[in-house]
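Renewal narrative, Specific Aim 1. Our central claim is that a sequence can be written position by position from structural information alone. The example that follows is taken directly from our test logs and has not been curated for this report. It begins with the structure tokens describing the chain, in the order in which they were read.
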């Protein structure tokens, strides 16, 4: 009996120490990334073996207004207001699909905010099937932590620098130079929308040569950009220095 108690005590001590170590390490990295761009992400590392790695991190002030607006219009229109999660979108995504309506999006999918996508791309891994549910627990943690420590401006800045925008292409600066032969600062409104339109599957949906999906989607993004542009909270975020 004493041996069992001793083993349980050692096991609990090991779990507690490991958890504390992981928490402190992750917290330190989150704080560092508040000012320093992630040196590498799991997605960038895995893609580099098959597609190479094209990226060029740029600062908030170098990111064009149009690309910031396009990302929010397409990916997360409640971004300036939520605390990391869009609970209304999550609730809608959990409702059963209508009969006869085909979709590849699982229940609970398609409701990720920009904050969640940033947490996933910076700290975690891309996942499919059952592993996507394993990832949800640390995703919840990192999502709330970067909301508290980074704030909206930094989250959007990192998102637009680390998100995959083509095979081996990460961030809007690399995407702008690859697809349009210019720096991101010189992207037109339509070009910004084309780049953002590739995000659901950037290895398949390309701005150039333009895939059918991008051709269909980017005019919708342009319309949404116009619809939300006058929002006061959005303008306060986008025009901050």
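The sequence written for that structure reads:
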């Amino acid at each position: 009996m004493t041996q069992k108690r001793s083993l349980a005590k050692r096991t609990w001590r090991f779990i507690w120490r490991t958890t504390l170590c992981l928490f402190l390490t992750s917290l330190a990295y989150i704080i560092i990334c508040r000012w320093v761009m992630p040196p590498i992400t799991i997605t960038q590392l895995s893609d580099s073996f098959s597609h190479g790695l094209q990226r060029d991190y740029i600062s908030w002030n170098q990111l064009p207004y149009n690309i910031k607006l396009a990302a929010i219009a397409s990916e997360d229109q409640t971004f300036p207001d939520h605390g990391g999660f869009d609970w209304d979108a999550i609730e809608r995504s959990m409702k059963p699909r209508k009969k006869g309506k085909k979709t590849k999006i699982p229940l609970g999918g398609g409701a990720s905010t920009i904050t969640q996508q940033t947490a996933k791309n910076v700290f975690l891994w891309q996942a499919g099937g059952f592993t996507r549910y394993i990832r949800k627990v640390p995703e919840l943690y990192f999502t709330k932590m970067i909301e508290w420590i980074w704030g909206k401006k930094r989250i959007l800045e990192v998102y637009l620098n680390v998100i995959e925008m083509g095979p081996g292409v990460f961030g809007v600066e690399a995407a702008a130079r690859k697809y349009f032969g210019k720096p991101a600062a010189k992207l037109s409104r339509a070009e910004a929308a084309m780049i953002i339109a590739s995000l659901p599957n950037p290895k398949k949906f390309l701005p150039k040569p333009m895939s059918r999906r991008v051709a269909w989607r980017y005019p919708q993004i342009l319309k949404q950009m116009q619809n939300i542009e006058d929002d006061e909270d959005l303008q306060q975020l986008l025009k901050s220095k």
